[in-house]
Every structure is written in structure tokens, then in C-alpha cells.
């Protein structure tokens, strides 16, 4: 599915990929918490692997498709171990938090420029 999400030439294919990901996440959320066998990242679950690559996964998606991926991740994380949930949620929201932080810094910079040019 991840490969299809990056087909920029075919937005309909991206839509189908994220919709399929959401459907799988709803139906099989517990399966995302299994450890990946023979992985270079020993002891990492599919959910943790997705969280680590989330920025790469959503980089070519439009806003609605990104929301759909986040909705799917919410379903997946709902099945995670309670002790890991805070860590997973923190990782999930790293990208949007960074975007907000950048926007706030930019607006602060703009505000500082406006106040320094005021009479």
C-alpha cells in the first residue's frame, strides 16, 4: 500500500491506497502490533515501523488522504498496549506538531517584523 500512496501521477490510486489502508486498519488493528520477523529492526512491531516512517508515508498525499492515514493510525494505536500508547501517540503527532511549531515561529517572525517597522 505504501508504494501506491506515492504514485503522484495517479491521485485516484492514492485515494484507493489510503482507503484500503484504513479498511485494513479497522479490520486487523491487532495484527499491526506483531513483531516484524527477520527485520533489521529487531523487536519492532509493524505499528512502530509505520510510526517511524510516517513522514515518508504522507509526504506525497493531499490533506484528505493524510487525514485518512491518521485515522487509520488511530485505529491501529487503539489496539496497542496501554503502556506504549503515550509513546506511540507522541510519535504519531511529531509531524503535525512540527508543522504547527514552524507556523507559530513564522508568524512570530512576521509579527516582529511588523512591530519593528511601525511608527
What does this structure look like?
The protein is mainly α. Helices cover about 70% and strands about 0% of the residues. It is built from seven helices and no strands. The chain has helices at about 1-5, 10-30, 45-50, 55-60, 65-80, 85-90, 95-115. The model has no long low-confidence stretch (mean pLDDT about 85).
How would a crystallographer describe the biggest sheet? none
Could you estimate the helical fraction of the residues in percent?
A: 55-70%
Distance between the termini: 56 Å
Strand content: under 5%
Order of helices and strands: HHHHHHH
Beta-strand segment tally: 0
Broad structural category = mainly alpha
Which descriptor suits the 3D outline? globular
Tell me the Rg in angstroms: 18 Å
Low-pLDDT windows of residues: none
By DSSP (H or I, 4+ residues per run), the number of helices equals 7
Average residue-wise pLDDT: 85
